[in-house]
Structures are given as C-alpha cells and as structure tokens.
Amino acid sequence: MSSVSTTFPKETSNDWILIDAEGQRVGRLATTIAQLLRGKHKVDFTPNRAGGDFVIVINASKIVFTGNKLDQKVYTRYSGYQGGLKEISARSMLAKHPDRVIQRAVWGMLPKTRLGRKLVRRLKVYAGDTHPHQAQQPKTMELS
C-alpha cells in the first residue's frame, strides 16, 4: 500500500504589503487585494490554506468610482427585523466610512467560508495616510 505524502511548509512567509488607494478604482483595487490575501501570487498557493499576505490600505477616502456609481450604487444591510432594511448610497458611505467601501468590495471577492473570514481579518484599511503597522515593515506596492 503506497501512501502519497503531501507536505505543507510548517511556516509560510506572510509578508505585509502597503497599498496607497489614492486615485485607484474600487473594483480593480479590490481584485488585487483579494489575490494578495488569498496568496495566488505565490508559487506554493493552496486553495484551502491561508497562505496569503497581510494587506494595509491607506488613503481609502481618496478612491475613485467610475461613471454614476457614486449616486447609483447602494449598500444595504438588514437587521433581521421587519422593516429593518437600511440603504446608504456610495457617496454617503465614502464620506462616513471610506474603509468599509474597500472592505465590502474585497469581501465580495473572497470565499464565504471560515477561510474567507480568516483572510478578511488580514486586511487593514485606513482612511488617511497613516497606519499603526510600521513595526511590520510593510513593502510598498505600486499599482498602475
């Protein structure tokens, strides 16, 4: 009886990547972040393991929506009670909670499982240009 032994590295290297969101489009930025969180850019990518990097996004308040999405896109949340459906436009969400715009866009591109919940916790989004993760020495990623 031969058994196939698949060995996974005990420690995977999880880098910290800093992304400046100023002038970036929401969807394109979210796809890049989702791929970094999943670890699809690494040679040892495994779909069922959290082998991706930690991602820090700064200047979330300066992201760009194309077309009429600022006024037409609507974010919804539901409390579970009758009449508990709340709606907020993208313009209002960007003004009040710019970090949630990016978090929701990235969450929509991750698996809706325990793995996805673990990956989304590795995303750190900040509205301004400062962040408290200097000790991790993040690598800056330039997006075109």
Fold and architecture overview:
The protein starts with 15 loop residues before the first strand and ends with a strand. Strands 5-2-1-6 form a four-stranded parallel sheet, covered by helices on one side. Strands 3-4 form a two-stranded antiparallel sheet. It is of the alpha/beta class and 144 residues long. The protein has helices at residues 26-38, 69-72, 90-96, 98-107, 114-120; strands at residues 16-20, 54-58, 74-78, 85-89, 123-125, 139-141. The model has no long low-confidence stretch (mean pLDDT 93). The protein has a domain at 16-65 and 97-141: Ribosomal protein L13 (Ribosomal Protein L13p, Chain: A).
- Tell me, briefly, the overall form: globular
> What's the name of the CATH homologous superfamily of the domain at 16-65 and 97-141?
Ribosomal protein L13
Number of strands: 6
Q: Which architecture of the domain at 16-65 and 97-141 would the CATH scheme give at its second level?
A: Alpha-Beta Complex
CATH fold description of the domain at 16-65 and 97-141: Ribosomal Protein L13p, Chain: A
Low-confidence stretches: none
